[in-house]
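Convert to structure. Protein one:
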Amino acid sequence: MPSTVDTVIVGAGQSGLAVSALLSARGRDHVVLDRGGAAHRWREERWDSLRLLTPNWLTRLPGWSYDGPDLDGYMTARDVAAWLQRYAASSRRRSSRRKWKRSLPAGGVLVVVASATGVQLADEMLQDGRRVVIAVGSHSRLPRTYRGMDIFWWLDRLGALFRTIGDRAPGRSRREPSLQLIGVARSAVDLLALRRRGARLVGRMRRIDGDVAYFDDHLPERTAAADAVMTRILDAADAHVAADPLLLDLRELTVQSDQSRPDGFIAEPGPAQLSLGRHGITSVLFATGLRPDYDWLRVPVVDAHGYIEQWRGTTRAPGLHVVGQPFQHRRDSTYIDGARWNAQDVVASLTRQGATAMPRRQRSASCS
């Protein structure tokens, strides 16, 4: 290795490894830093039963793709870690997991937020026979499959995954909630399915005061909004099948049982408050997602929401780039498959083969 290296990649997850692969292909000297090696978070900071929301065929990085026997399956966190480690090793780059269920006391559980992680945890706890209450915030509802195809097949086919930040207000797009899905084929974990299995739905949690949790009264509006988005997407899928002669075989698929359009769902108003002890709730799980922590980054590029201001990975600080931001440019930026597009933008900028300036309009818009 030379005595000086002009590119340092911080983080050896899918985004960092994708950038490294493209730099290696262009003969660019660089070093990848990570506190725990390749795929550290996948190995050490995910619960055992976690699976990808995206099907295996959509798991792709530069020069690398899923090569296992189950293209339509969903890899576990352990499988993803092994896959990324093999990816790192293929380019000559260089477990104590969360036992969350074992750490919870017996009794019911209040799950706060109803996006992907929240509904998956609620699903597993219902399987364990626990009483489950879900405090519902903003969420996205879609079926796991529709007309015989995985929903991500439809999102890819309809162009939803590669819509860019310019199609929507950047601030709103980057706070878009994840889908109510689980990485198991034909398994529904949306709020309607969970309620039918015994979960109780309440509004967004406002606060906990002693033994009492307080909730807002917007549960009907939130579920109605999620239902409307789902209807719009599935209507678009139906129109696509009707218009495209190449999909005539899909037109013949019956829309029965788990492949049918889910029932519409608008929840009734929930209670304004709940005594946790009286209802047997002994644990509260905050499935509110992850927020970035850039306290260690002593460069003035972080906006009011804690995200790095950037345009296609390029920041206003000369030489500083970022990959893996939510909706960095395309909607699929946070999926493994989207990392390759983020990496291409950044490497093009690093090697002066693409636009490097952060547009003035985007600088202000990214703070909204």
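Protein two, convert as well:
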Amino acid sequence: MFNISRKVEEMSHSALELCCDEFKKIDKITEYNQQKMLKAFIDNGVSESHFGVSTGYGYGDRGRETLDNLYAQVFEAEDALVRHNFVCGTHALATALFGVLRPGDTMLSVTGTPYDTLQGVIGITKGYSGSLKDFLINYKEVPLKTNGFLDFDNIEKSINDEIKMVYIQRSRGYSLRPALFVREIEKIAKIAKRKAPNCIVMLDNCYGEFVECDEPLSHGVDLMAGSLIKNPGGGIAPTGGYIAGKKELIKMCSYRLTTPGTGREVGATLGTNRELFMGAFNAPHVTGEALKTAVFASALFELLGFEVTPRYNERRADIIQILKLGDPELLVKFCQGIQSGAPVDSFVKPEPWDMPGYDSKVIMAAGSFNLGASIELSADAPL
């Protein structure tokens, strides 16, 4: 039907055979997380009435409040803030940072320099008015080791009572370092609380939700945030993001999202509740399928002679798969190929461009039902 070469089909069958054991492991995690999600729906009495529309101020939106409670239970948090008007994961992270940090506070990133789009928020990248730096919030970082692993010795030396926030990025982003497992995140949190008992341990959890059975908030993290057009939206949430964690911190974040005093009590949902609930319910399954796709891609490209990370049989802490093509021209052709096989906008030809928030040209292929959603099959990279 698609005129795929016999060689590629044979390689594909060989790759699938290699993946069988890994698929079974993923299925077990998916099954556990799906049951956890179902129990949260039942415990919170989700009903048709929660899918109603609110307008204006959005006072008394039962669906909005129940959705917050649902995510809080699934993420093992004291509270959560789930909103369609978080425009992206970076927006949710920025709301959390501005919500809990104050002038004179110091934020310490222990996973090296954060993802490109957050650098403008912090003030690492110059020229963006309104950054944390503009509000006299200090920033420090602990570089990763040359092999990309966490430098726990340096982390321990860098944390003291002057540090208000220990910041962790779970996923690799565009770097080649490995994503972080919950056990590693817990180790950072234990060091942080021992060296600075009053500090806030915050996690960028993008791409990591439902990849493991445990969630970071039950292992020492105080606050975490992510995007609904990645794992937790199940490919159905049309937009949005979440912040989850300690109740008092969520309250502070809600005052940043809207206004001090009104917080979470306002914000019309405009008919988005049904899709957000449906996306949440499908999230564990869809995340599992994304993991299987990553495992398969890793096996196939390794058989084709490319360097990949992680390998198909390595444990995973996020859904991202790195394929090292080694040549900008190959990268562009690969992304164009992915786009040509997409269900939406298959006729579009991706080209590298200067995307806002990035320090180099970036190419993105995402023929997805939600524009740019990276829980559906997509490919992107900096040139």
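The chain has two domains: 6-35+279-382, 53-271. The longest strand covers residues 79-83.
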